[in-house]
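Worked Example 4.2. Consider the chain below.
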Amino acid sequence: MMYKRFFVSVILLVCFLSLFGKVRELTPYLADPDTNTGIAVIICPGGSYSWLDMKTEGVIPAKWLQSNGINAFVLKYRVASVGAYIFGFRVLGIGHKYPDMLNDVEWALEEIYTNADKYNVDTAKIGVMGFSAGGHLAMLSYLHNKTSYKPKFLCPIYPVVTMNNEQFVHKRSRRGALGVWRQYNKSMCDSLSVEDQIPEDCPPVFLVNCKDDPIVHCQNSELLDSALNVKNIPHRYIKYAIGGHGFGACEEKCSNECRLWKNEFLLWISNFNQ
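Applying the procedure from the previous section yields the following structure tokens:
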């Protein structure tokens, strides 16, 4: 009887936690009119496609971009759920999976493109930045985007890249994106392996990771860098020796080395103002 009650309690807890992450939201952080560059960046926080780090990889990067004349839009996209992240399974199929999160970033792009005058942004300067699993989504926002509203640049920061390389795949992100059963579907994993999907017309990419990343193997970014080189896609790849994972734009979580990525990004993005 005690085990039965415990099992029921776990099921109820998973169901409760699965209620989170069901609503998509786009929160703008608009630049001051006097310093507005016209650039717009959609920010996709990470969280293994199961939860979202809305502060370190959402609000903090948005305020940093805003202070530098860049219009930022934090996207709360739909994910599997905290329950799926903790327990590794979904009760009664509750929780979102691919392509829900792709649909959300496409929705965000359309919102900004169609309201460019309202937000005071230049439609030639709209891009997507993402952290960890959000970096994977940032890449998909162009690679799998079937709409006419596509980003003009991509900024994956310590991203999940591969879904089919068993040596380097981040399994929690794959499970969060695809679900318990579809994570073993080879065709789905192949189609979501960014390194195998780079087209000839891929927009410029700004890519950052750290060699000592303990969460997402550093080889993920190296696979992406190699794929971009093969297709001659303009990109900037920076690999820091020390910094780990999950630092976002937070000074307190960055090493002295990896916090430099923000200055490098501002220098790189300034090309869009010329």
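Confidence is low (pLDDT under 50) at residues 6-21, 82-87. DSSP finds ten helices and seven strands in the chain. Compare this with Example 4.1 before moving on.
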